[in-house]
Amino acid sequence: MHEQGVAVPLDMRLRFGRAAVQVMADRVGADILHIKGDAVDPSLRSHRVGTDVDILVRPADVDRLDRAIREEGWRLYSTFTMGSPFGHAQTYLHESWGYLDLHRSFPGIRLDPASAFELLGRDGGVIDEVGVSCRVPGIDAQAVILLLNAARDVGGGPADVERLWNDASPDDREKRSRLADDLRARVALAAATGDLEHYRGEPEYTLWKAISEGGPRSAEWWGRVRAASTLREAVALVFRAPWVNVERLTHELGRTPTRTEVMREFFRRQRRAAAEVRAWVRASGR
């Protein structure tokens, strides 16, 4: 007689996955904040339900938590280096609990990650996930995180901006604005709320213009170079930009790509990048 598998409902899978991550963090002494998805306060939450667990980790604790996660059977799905141009998150996959995004920073926040973690955790609270206590940012910090995320979410972001900014009270907007300033996230917030043109002279302008309007990845990379804090960071981005994202190509193919496939993708990326930049520059008048 064969046993029939039973699918775990998404909301329960997320709750147990979140609890499992918190237990691991407690065991190794890693300080984390649960962000986005079902960790968001109900007063801020949209009708959309997240499909993965997102955590922000104190930078000093990232390595120890990474080791603990892998030891507990989570498979590395994408790395900090290849996961996004921001290098902000690493993704894991567990056969029971699904996806986990481990954030060491958050896109749009230019305050150093350690200080940003402290600021986001200030005035925070605790939620219960199947009997496990999980720390979350304060209400205004949660709102700012969602707004910064909305700047990168061309499809669903406007609904979050409408709820968390346009429909918010003047007092709430002022508190969220001040927090964004403290986090050095003003330009990213402006990209979400429609005020980006007021920051046209800022180094981050080109980056958030491309991201918030759905520009090509090549324009996004150029924006990253222009927004780099140091010459060394800018040079590193220039060298990294042409790399083939082997992780993404592996997921697309469902197997490890051959050397020939990687080289073919490399030259395809260069042709596409050149065409994208030309079209985007013409369209935006740059």
Describe the structure.
This protein has helices at 10-28, 62-71, 80-83, 113-121, 139-150, 157-166, 170-182, 186-193, 205-212, 217-227, 231-240, 246-253, 259-284, and strands at residues 32-35, 52-57, 75-78, 89-94, 98-103, 125-129, 132-136. It is built from 13 helices and 7 strands. The chain has a domain at 201-286. Strands 1-2-5-4-3 form a 5-stranded mixed β-sheet. It is globular, with a radius of gyration of 20 Å. Strand 4 (89-94) and strand 5 form a beta hairpin. The termini are far apart. Helices cover 52% and strands 13% of the residues. With 286 residues, it is an alpha+beta fold. Residues 1-6 have low confidence and may be disordered.
Explain briefly what this protein structure is.
This protein is of the alpha+beta class and 286 residues long. The chain contains 13 helices and seven strands.
Descriptive labels:
286 residues; alpha+beta; five-stranded mixed sheet; two-stranded antiparallel ribbon; 13 helices; 7 strands; 52% helix; globular
Mean pLDDT reading: 84
Briefly note the structural class of the backbone: alpha+beta
Number of helices: 13
Major sheet: size, sense and barrel closure? Answer: 5 strands, mixed
Rough shape?
Answer: globular
Low-confidence stretches: 1-6
What is the CA-CA span between the terminal residues?
68 Å
Strand order of the largest sheet: 1-2-5-4-3
* Secondary structure: helix percent: 40-55%
Question: Which secondary structure elements does this structure contain, and how are they paired or packed?
Answer:
Blueprint: H1 10-28, E1 32-35, E2 52-57, H2 62-71, E3 75-78, H3 80-83, E4 89-94, E5 98-103, H4 113-121, E6 125-129, E7 132-136, H5 139-150, H6 157-166, H7 170-182, H8 186-193, H9 205-212, H10 217-227, H11 231-240, H12 246-253, H13 259-284
Parallel strand pairs: 2-5
Antiparallel strand pairs: 1-2, 3-4, 4-5, 6-7
Helix pairs in contact: 1-2, 5-6, 5-7, 5-8, 8-9, 9-10, 10-11
